[in-house]
């Protein structure tokens, strides 16, 4: 099996699908010749030609709308939005046009599109390059939101997303592109969209996280283990729809939970997870479920992002709070 | 009124040039009126800006600056367009347009603070009419349009100028801004610095339009194209546009054809998409060399002057970066309190998580 980092795994997923299905197309700003600002699509234009992997003019709304039109024509676009803050320019096309196409046309047309975008803090990037905007999209019906935390999942989830007949917003954490390598199978496999993963078993508390925060939570769990506290960690993998069954099963065992997200605290994915726990498992809880998240400010300029972002210490404090409740 | 039959506007537009690469005025009619002192001031600002860019790139490599977009090569467009304005005219910049802000009055250390990811970099002094650099390409075009409408509503004879690149001219916001400004006849100048690339994408892959200046036609506004390596052409075009705007004759789209000697940003490798040959050709058109040659021929400038400006610029940059480095760090509480006029209760509570 090959060792790949997350970026290579993502590139490999696209290569596998370009090869398998002639309807798969990749486009976006700078994705062609040079292979994107992170080189995620490097080499793909050389291999598959300019008709299938191409640069667009600098216009996100056009990129999104082009994807919708191509979807109507039976293609399967992978549209890259260069950085997450620029999805706002494409928001109408993503969360209104693409996400409502099946509904509006009574199922005649659908939008089998993957919108890929890098996001995620801790890299001291320029303003609006790192914000966690998954909650915003997750609130929009008709589009799935996937946030992988490791190379294996990234490849399997991306292949699943490309094959999905509905739009998927696929978010790639900047801090995970090169963070580490894992074994990634060659060729074809999928990881189911909408299925969470128990990445660490434990009996005392459930920590629900996704993306980079899975790793931050793992660091916290290592620390907690030293004082005999066993945390179970669930990687959501997909933040819309949320795999509540896996969460409920875990909460039944641990009776305590916290949710960790990089995004601002209010009205986001963590709030949704807690709402669903309340609906499905409130009688199994021994303490309120807490959110460990960024505060409700704009994503800060680079200088204090490290303080702003959730870290192991804040997760540990949260765990202690629910344990001592 | 004559009508153009069938085929419309397919011709190339020629760029206005005043100063030849050899440093000779080849278009006397369009040479802007400039005193000797002003000419020297222009040379000073251009050389200062180049030196600052050189230093900034080094500071970036040392980790003393954060996000920084190089400017070398674009001194004629940046220094020239600002020079043609009045202090009360308003600048709405893109992320690269820091020189215009600084020459319009933003203290240099604040530009450094912005780059270092400090909120106070965007705290613009009272009497400086600029917005902070915009990351969202195209957004500033609409802000300038609104600011221009404000000038018009208040009967103030000022103009707003906004900058974007060849890439930015593809955004929807660009067309919406042009169209609004035309519809309301607003005193705004859309200044496009066409440096041939949007990150890696060359102009030929950006648009099938023969020029960006052509795009004014559809909006019903004046469009002009200038040699963006020629500061006199830039000053002339902006002065003319500003005069039209002040006279109530509406907006102008200016395309300035220029080149950026360095890559798009400090984390970018231009050799992947540009050739050495091309870079060499543009080097020959260096806007600073051109002005210096002209001033030398008039006996207004010498090598010593250039050296003096470089030394001054270096000293100033060192001073200002130190000032930026000494500025008190941001805090999460301060950040939370900067969200609203009155911090709501739930946000007050969130401060506790960070104490
Ligand atoms: C809305 C939006 N989309 C994408 C980007 C990412 N981006 C930053 S600079 C750039 C290219 C800009 O090219 P151009 O407008 O020609 O300006 P230049 O930097 O060449 O002066 C891109 C795509 C952005 N900042 N904003």
UniProtKB/TrEMBL annotation, chain A:
CDD domains: TPP_PYR_E1-PDHc-beta_like (cd07036). Residues 4-179 form the Transketolase-like pyrimidine-binding domain. Pfam families: Transket_pyr, Transketolase_C. Gene3D superfamilies: 3.40.50.920, 3.40.50.970. SMART domains: Transket_pyr. Coiled coil: none annotated. Keywords: Oxidoreductase, Thiamine pyrophosphate. InterPro entries: THDP-binding, Transketo_C/PFOR_II, Transketolase-like_Pyr-bd, Transketolase_C. GO terms for molecular function: oxidoreductase activity. Its cofactor is thiamine diphosphate. This is 2-oxoisovalerate dehydrogenase.
From TrEMBL, chain B:
GO terms for molecular function: pyruvate dehydrogenase (acetyl-transferring) activity. Gene3D superfamilies: 3.40.50.970. Pfam families: E1_dh. One of its GO terms (biological process) is branched-chain amino acid catabolic process. It catalyses: N(6)-[(R)-lipoyl]-L-lysyl-[protein] + pyruvate + H(+) = N(6)-[(R)-S(8)-acetyldihydrolipoyl]-L-lysyl-[protein] + CO2. Residues 45-332 form the Dehydrogenase E1 component domain. Keywords: Oxidoreductase, Pyruvate, Thiamine pyrophosphate. Its EC number is 1.2.4.1. It is an enzyme of class 1 (oxidoreductase). Its cofactor is thiamine diphosphate. Signal peptide: none annotated. PANTHER family: 2-OXOISOVALERATE DEHYDROGENASE SUBUNIT ALPHA, MITOCHONDRIAL. The pyruvate dehydrogenase complex catalyzes the overall conversion of pyruvate to acetyl-CoA and CO(2). It contains multiple copies of three enzymatic components: pyruvate dehydrogenase (E1), dihydrolipoamide acetyltransferase (E2) and lipoamide dehydrogenase (E3). Heterodimer of an alpha and a beta chain. This is Pyruvate dehydrogenase E1 component subunit alpha. It comes from Paenibacillus durus ATCC 35681.
């Amino acid at each position: 099996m090959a060792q790949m980092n997350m970026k290579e795994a993502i590139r490999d997923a696209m290569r596998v699908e370009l090869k398998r299905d002639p309807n798969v197309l990749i486009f976006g700003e700078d994705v062609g010749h040079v292979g994107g600002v992170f080189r995620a699509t490097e080499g793909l234009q050389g291999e598959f030609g300019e008709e299938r992997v191409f640069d667009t003019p600098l216009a996100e709304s056009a990129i999104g709308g082009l994807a919708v039109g191509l979807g109507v024509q039976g293609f399967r676009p992978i549209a890259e939005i260069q950085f997450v803050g620029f999805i706002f320019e494409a928001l109408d096309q993503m969360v209104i046009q693409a996400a409502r196409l099946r509904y509006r046309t009574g199922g005649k047309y659908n939008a089998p599109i993957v919108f890929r975008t890098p996001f995620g803090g801790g890299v001291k990037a320029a303003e609006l390059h790192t914000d966690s905007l998954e909650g915003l999209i997750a609130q929009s019906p008709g589009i799935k939101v996937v946030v992988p935390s490791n190379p294996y999942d990234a490849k399997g989830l991306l292949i699943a997303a490309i094959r999905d007949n509905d739009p998927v917003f696929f978010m790639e954490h900047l801090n995970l592109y090169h963070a580490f390598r894992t074994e990634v199978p060659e060729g074809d496999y999928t990881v189911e969209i909408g299925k969470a993963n128990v990445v660490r078993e434990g009996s005392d508390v459930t920590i629900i996280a996704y993306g980079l925060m899975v790793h931050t939570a793992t660091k916290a769990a290592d620390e907690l283990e030293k004082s005999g506290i066993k945390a179970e960690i669930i990687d959501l993998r997909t933040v819309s729809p949320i795999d509540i069954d896996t969460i409920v099963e875990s909460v039944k065992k641990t009776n305590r939970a916290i949710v960790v997200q990089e995004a601002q605290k209010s009205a986001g994915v963590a709030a949704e997870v807690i709402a669903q726990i309340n609906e499905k498992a409130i009688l199994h809880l021994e303490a309120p479920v807490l959110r460990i998240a960024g505060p409700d400010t704009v994503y800060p300029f680079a200088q204090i992002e490290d303080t702003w972002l959730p870290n192991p210490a804040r997760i540990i404090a949260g765990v202690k709070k629910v344990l001592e409740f | 009124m004559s009508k153009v039959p069938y085929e419309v506007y397919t011709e190339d537009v020629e760029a206005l040039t005043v100063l030849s690469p050899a440093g000779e005025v080849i278009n006397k009619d369009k040479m802007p009126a400039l005193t000797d002192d002003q000419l020297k001031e222009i040379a000073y600002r251009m050389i200062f800006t180049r030196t600052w860019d050189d230093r900034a790139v080094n500071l970036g490599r040392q980790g003393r600056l954060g996000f920084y977009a190089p400017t070398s090569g674009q001194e004629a467009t940046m220094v020239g367009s600002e020079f043609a304005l009045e202090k009360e005219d308003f600048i709405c910049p893109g992320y690269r347009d820091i020189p215009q802000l600084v020459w319009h009055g933003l203290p240099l250390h604040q530009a450094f603070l912005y780059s270092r990811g400090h909120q106070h970099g965007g705290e613009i002094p009272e009497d400086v009419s600029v917005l902070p650099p915009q990351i969202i390409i195209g957004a500033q075009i609409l802000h300038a349009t609104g600011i221009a409408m404000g000038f018009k509503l208040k009967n103030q004879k000022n103009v707003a100028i906004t900058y974007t690149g060849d890439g930015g001219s593809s955004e929807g916001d660009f067309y919406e801004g042009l169209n609004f400004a035309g519809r309301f006849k607003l005193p705004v100048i859309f200044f496009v610095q066409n440096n041939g690339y949007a990150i890696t994408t060359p102009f030929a892959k950006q648009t099938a339009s023969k020029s960006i200046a052509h795009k004014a036609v559809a909006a019903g506004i004046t469009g002009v194209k200038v040699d963006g390596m020629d500061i006199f052409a830039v000053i002339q075009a902006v002065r003319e546009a500003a005069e039209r705007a002040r006279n109530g004759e509406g907006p102008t789209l200016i395309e300035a054809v220029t080149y950026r000697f360095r890559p798009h940003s400090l984390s970018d490798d231009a050799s992947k998409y540009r050739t050495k040959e091309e870079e060499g050709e543009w080097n020959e058109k260096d806007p600073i060399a051109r002005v210096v040659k002209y001033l030398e021929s008039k006996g207004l400038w010498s090598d010593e002057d250039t050296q003096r400006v470089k030394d001054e610029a270096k000293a100033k940059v060192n001073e200002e970066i130190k000032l930026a480095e000494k500025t008190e760090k941001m805090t999460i509480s301060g950040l939370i309190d900067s969200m609203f006029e009155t911090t709501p209760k739930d946000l007050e509570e969130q401060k506790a998580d960070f104490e």
